Amino acid sequence: xxxxTVPLVVVxxxxxxxxxxxxxxxxxxxxxxxxxxxxxxxxxxxxxxxxFVESDGGYGDIGLTNLTLGVSYEREILSVTDIETAxxxxxxxxxxxxxxxxxxxESGTAVAHQWRDPPxxxxxxxxxxxxxxxxxxxxxxxxxxxxSFVDSRAELxxxxxxxxxEHNATLRIENNGDTAGAVATEESPADSGxxxxxxxxxxxxxxxxxxxxxxxxxxx
Length: 220
What we know:
Blueprint (H helix, E strand, L loop, with lengths): L5 H21 L3 E5 L3 E4 L4 E10 L8 E9 L5 E8 L10 E9 L4 E9 L7 E12 L6 E7 L3 E4 L3 E3 L1 E3 L2 E5 L8 E2 L12 H24 L1
Parallel strand pairs: 1-12, 2-13
Antiparallel strand pairs: 1-3, 2-14, 3-8, 4-7, 4-9, 4-10, 5-8, 6-7, 9-13, 10-11
Pfam families: Cohesin (PF00963)
Organism: Halovenus salina
Keywords: Membrane, Transmembrane, Transmembrane helix
């Protein structure tokens, strides 16, 4: 290959990578998180955990059309008595919203699934997706136990699956029955979402600088 064409080839490859990265960065990840990251409960108590979803959608202003929330818990300490979907996918252009839920207490798992049909561009924003109702065992010891959100899935309009970041809920069991309030222990996921689009922009700028450097190097 002629030395004069090398910079053009390198620049073309780098630019293609940058554009690909920027396009991927335009499809924002979905965040699943509890209303309170930590709650204090007592043995024998029934508690509701409200689960929220945050999504800015994807490239072309499309939103989520299909959501699945997986729940896992210590069945020796907790028992899920109910799981209900909320109104997240009712946002956006009007359409029919369907849901199905299941509980398998023997394996310590539960699932909430909701979808739009027809999709009609999907839903974005922050809203409640589900409520998980739990019973704490009467003989539960004083300990911390985790309500884990696992195997959750999210799809944009067009059946394009996006990453899901899951933030678990911690239940602090205390025998004195002091459940005065649920306390969020960390920064809200809504305020700390990953700056994916910014990364794409920085990537394009970096590639531009590298391209100039390579061009000058081969001309010298």
